[in-house]
């Protein structure tokens, strides 16, 4: 009986020790063994964001004579900022058909366009329908920052970063980082596309993540971090927690042994 009990205790201790969260589980962008270098070349570049339905756009038209373009900037968004709240009331919303309603020009189809392409489109239509080349038009199109949402073993909520290019490490830092119990080896990115949503996976514990096409996030991305199996099982996340679990379990098994022996 003693031998069997010792075997069970040894097995339980081995399993619990193996369940501790190690540095390999929580350190970001670890270099591959044997491939360490002073620097490395990264080839992945962020793909330009393409406008989706319900996006808010800030469109500002400038010319030599500001009075000529005042009708296109009725709310003077450039001076009031391009916050999401401001654009909700004063910007241009992409409707379910992928169109925006622009003064004088009417409906413009912008679904799937980049902001640079929309700038060209608006300028060309203005020159075709309303202005001459001598007006020297300058059109800018902006999104109200880069919006994304985080869920799971990370600070939960919707976040905005006022940059055109944001990588997933920056996004996670803005959200408050992934908890120690979060699975950094399989972070899910749920991304919007014109034909629907797709789920992508990225391992943030390897330096190869920086070359992934999903290393840079896009507007309206959902970043989902699942818990590690260790947390799901309810075992210790640190050696001290694991030791505490082992001592508690050992006490129970010892008490059970003496109880059976006394019968």
TrEMBL record:
Gene3D superfamilies linked to this entry: Outer membrane lipoprotein wza domain like, wza like domain
Domain Polysaccharide export protein N-terminal, first and last residues per copy: 46-141
Pfam families: Poly_export
Entry superkingdom: Bacteria
GO molecular function: polysaccharide transmembrane transporter activity
Keywords in alphabetical order: Membrane, Signal, Sugar transport, Transmembrane, Transmembrane helix, Transport
Ranges that cross the membrane: 240-260
Signal peptide (from-to): 1-18
Listed PANTHER family: POLYSACCHARIDE EXPORT PROTEIN GFCE-RELATED
UniProt name for this protein: Sugar transporter
Organism: Siansivirga zeaxanthinifaciens CC-SAMT-1
